[in-house]
Amino acid sequence: MDADPTVKAGQKTVSVKILSPVQPIPPAPLPGLPFIPVEFDATTVTAYVGQNTFRLAWSIRARAMRAPRTAAVPAPAKNTVTAGKEAA
Fold first, then answer.
1. Where is region (Disordered) located (predicted)?
2. Segment 45-61, tens digit of pLDDT
3. pTM check: above 0.85
């Protein structure tokens, strides 16, 4: 994946086939980001040799696409004794 607009589409894109009974709707773009962040559920990646190029290629499939979940903020670490104080 490459956000450079001068790069050819085949060099900067990744296609994911979504196997869903309904067409997923991507979330709204976020300002300042070149890509729309999404999460895929039940993703499978299969390697194969391309018939025309004889190069390694990848097939990426997912069951669903959704907006990313927000991560929980980790609790601040408690102040512990440092290694330097233990040695003293």
1. 69-88
2. 999 999 998 999 999 99
3. no
